[in-house]
Amino acid sequence: MVPKTSQEFVPIKEVRDGIAILKDGSMRALLMTSSLNFALKSTDEQQAIISQFQNFLNSLDFTIQIFIQSRKLDIKPYLSMLDGRVKEQTNDLLKIQGREYINFIKSFTESVNIMTKNFFIVIPYTPPSLDITKGAKFFGPKKDKKQQSIDDFEESRSQLEQRVAVVKQGISRCGVRAANLGTEEIIEVYYKIFNPGDVDFKANK
Questions:
Q1: What pLDDT, on a 0 to 100 scale, did the predictor assign at position 5?
Q2: DSSP 8-state assignment for residue 115
Q3: 187: closest CA among 8, 19, 67?
Q4: CA 127 from chain center: how many Å?
Q5: pLDDT (tens digit, 9 = 90+) per residue, 118-152?
Q6: Which one, of 190, 185, 204, lies nearest residue 13 by Cα?
Q7: Whole-angstrom Cα distance, residue 20 to residue 65?
Q8: Is the predicted pLDDT of residue 108 greater than 50, yes or no?
Q9: What is the CA radius of gyration of the chain?
Q10: Are 50 and 174 in contact, with CB atoms under 8 Å apart?
Q11: Is 70 helix (H, G, I), strand (E, B) or coil?
C-alpha cells in the first residue's frame, strides 16, 4: 500500500484571485477583521454590541466560520534590528544600555509566551451542480471547456462577493472592520494552519 502524501490531506485545490478553491469545487473567501476590547465597554455598549451581532447572525442565509489564529510572537526580527543599532552606536554607555535591553527582552520572551491573535471570517460558496453544457444546444452554441470553466468561475465569484459584501456590512454595525485577504495572504493563512511549527512563512515558500 502506497502511503499518502501530506498534500493529499489538504482540501485546497488552488487559490485564485483572492479565493480558495477546494477539491470538491466549493469556494472560500477570507476576511481579516479588527478586534474589540469588549471588557472595557460600558454595560450599555456591551448589550448594544451583542444585540447587533445577534441581528447580524440572524440576517444570514448562509453559514460562516469565525476563526482565531493564535501564534507565538516572533521577536527575532526586532532583536536583530536592535542589535544592528547597538553596533552602529558610538557612545559606549548607550552600547551597554542597548545590550542590557536586548538581554532583558530575550529573557522576558523566553519566560513568558507572548501571543499574537488574528481574527478571520471564512465565507463559503458552493456552485450549483448544474451541467450547463447539456442544455447548451437548446440555447446556443456549446462553449469549449476552458471558456466554460472561466465563465463558471466568474459567476461563482460574483455570488461569493455578494456574500462577502453582506458580511462586511453586517459586521461593521458591530464596530468591527473587515478587509478581504488577497491570494498571497490566503496562502499564508492556510500554510500556517497546516504548518503550525513554522514561524517564518516566507522562508519556507
A1: 58
A2: E
A3: 19
A4: 22
A5: 899 999 999 886 444 444 444 455 556 666 677 78
A6: 190
A7: 14
A8: yes
A9: 24
A10: no
A11: strand
3-state secondary structure 124-160: EECCCCCCHHHHHHHHCCCCCHHHHHHHHHHHHHHHH
Strands 115-125 vs 65-72: parallel, antiparallel or unpaired: antiparallel
Instruction: Compute the C-alpha angle 100/101/106, nearest 5°.
Output: 100
Residue type at position 96: I
Residue 42 and residue 38: Cα distance in Å, rounded?
Answer: 9
pLDDT band at residue 3 using 50, 70 and 90 as cut-offs:
low
pLDDT tens per residue, range 38-90: 888 999 999 999 999 999 999 999 999 998 888 777 788 888 999 999 898 88
| Residue 81: all three cell numbers together | 534590528
* Cell (9 digits) for 134: 447539456
Given a contact cutoff of 8 angstroms between Cβ atoms, the answer to whether 115 and 69 are in contact is no
What amino acid occupies position 114? I
